[in-house]
Amino acid sequence: MKHYRYLLLDADETLFDFPQSEKFAIAQTLKDYGFSCDEETISLYSRINHALWQRFNLGEIPREQIRQERFSRLLAELGGNPGLGPEMDQHYAAALGGFGILFPGALEMCRKLAGVYTMAIVTNGFSVSQHGRFDRSPIREYIPYLFISEELGCQKPQKLFF
């Protein structure tokens, strides 16, 4: 029987509760820019962001287009200045880095597996957000490696990433 030595774990929606982290970060960003942070506005942002990420994952758009468009589109829908989109996106990415909410049991799982495997997180998320969440997380003690597609120049699940 084969014995695996390494485990590659996705970050978002595997270890980290991304929807909850996203909700807190978008609410903080909207509030900081003077917009309502009600459920309807948060849901609108999530739909815009999700659609752009789907296009990225299909190879239809480059990563940077997500950062250029998601808040510009949101601001256009809210009657704000779409030109503030890239600035607002930077603010959001930094805020998201502060919300590394783990799923229940994720820390305990990492603690148990660390004694058996060398683990790494592999992610397509943006570097500033992923480093912020990972570096502040208690799982950092058990997972020594973080591979981010933005830094590697290719995305999961491309063969070159792995």
Distance between the termini: 23 Å
| Outline | globular
Tell me the number of strands: 3
Order of helices and strands: EHHHHHEHEH
Mean pLDDT, all residues: 93
Radius of gyration: 17 Å
Q: Total number of helical segments?
A: 7
Bin the helical content.
40-55%
- Binned strand content: 5-15%
By oligomeric state, this entry counts as single chain
Strand order of the largest sheet: 1-2-3
Explained architecture:
It is a single chain. By secondary structure, the protein is mainly alpha-helical. Helices cover 52% and strands 9% of the residues. It is built from seven helices and three strands, in the order βαααααβαβα. The protein has helices spanning 18-32, 39-57, 63-78, 85-96, 106-114, 127-136, 149-152, and strands at 6-10, 118-123, 145-148. The chain has a three-stranded parallel β-sheet. Helix 4 (85-96) runs parallel beside helix 6. It is globular, with a radius of gyration of 17 Å. The two termini are 23 Å apart. The relative contact order is 0.17. The model has no long low-confidence stretch (mean pLDDT 93).
